[in-house]
Each structure stands twice: as structure tokens, then as C-alpha cells.
Design brief:
3 helices; single chain; alpha+beta
């Protein structure tokens, strides 16, 4: 495939916010889809036995949401090349996470986006996403 030109983007540009309602179904479905069968992601009683107030989202679901957030805003030819995230406050059912992004670097047909996601407890995720643009 021949690389396409990136959209007109500049370092410092902000992506629109994305609000994600954190439901029990989202948490459990994300864990199952990523084959993460740890009880803290699907069994509220066992999660409480381990000190959590309820089930909580796994890192792979968060990773997928971050990737979706970036590619949804950078266009259909944006290809994820690297995602590096760190988790903080857990996402529990009934909360809302707000993802925000800012372009850190834009070079030719690639960009690095700084991403954060906050919920009612604080900062859930911090990371960077590297994308390139490709097409026919």
C-alpha cells in the first residue's frame, strides 16, 4: 500500500472529547472478548472479597477504547502503530470516563497523540498512541 498524506494536523491540536458510559456489560464483555477471565472483571462478590467495591475494567478493554478514540478522530486511513498506556483509578460500573487527546508530534504521515481518560475517581488512563496514515 502506498502511504497517504495525513490530515492537516499540528502539534498541540486537541481531539474532541469522548464520553464512555462504564456499564457492567462493557466491563464483562471487554474482559471476555480479550480472554481475561480474572474474577475481578466479572464477579462482583469476588471483586469485593479482593478489596474492590465492584468489578472493574481490564487494561485490554481500556487499550481498545483508547485506540478507537484516536482512530475515530484521525480518519479511516489512520493505522495504529503503537499504544503505550498506564492505568490509574479503576473504571467501575455506573461511572463515566472522558477521553481527551492532544497531538504531541506530527511528522509527515505519522503522529503521536497524548491521551488521558478520567472518571469519578480520578485519572483512569494516561498514554500515547502513534499512528500513520495508509491507503490505496
Amino acid at each position: 500500500m502506498k502511504p497517504m498524506s495525513s490530515p492537516v494536523l499540528r502539534p498541540g491540536d486537541e481531539l474532541p472529547r469522548l464520553t464512555v458510559e462504564i456499564t457492567r456489560t462493557l466491563i464483562v464483555a471487554g474482559a471476555l472478548a480479550s480472554r481475561d477471565f480474572q474474577d475481578v472483571h466479572h464477579d462482583p462478590e469476588l471483586a469485593r472479597d479482593k478489596g474492590a467495591p465492584d468489578v472493574f475494567m481490564n487494561i485490554l478493554t481500556t487499550n481498545g477504547l483508547v485506540g478507537r478514540y484516536v482512530t475515530d478522530h484521525l480518519g479511516p486511513t489512520a493505522v495504529l502503530r503503537k499504544i503505550a498506556i498506564r492505568l490509574g483509578a479503576p473504571n467501575h460500573p455506573g461511572d463515566t470516563m472522558v477521553l481527551r487527546g492532544r497531538l504531541r508530534d506530527v511528522t509527515g504521515d505519522s503522529a503521536v497523540v497524548e491521551v488521558t481518560g478520567d472518571n469519578g475517581l480520578g485519572r483512569h488512563v494516561t498514554g500515547t498512541v502513534t499512528v500513520t496514515w495508509e491507503g490505496p
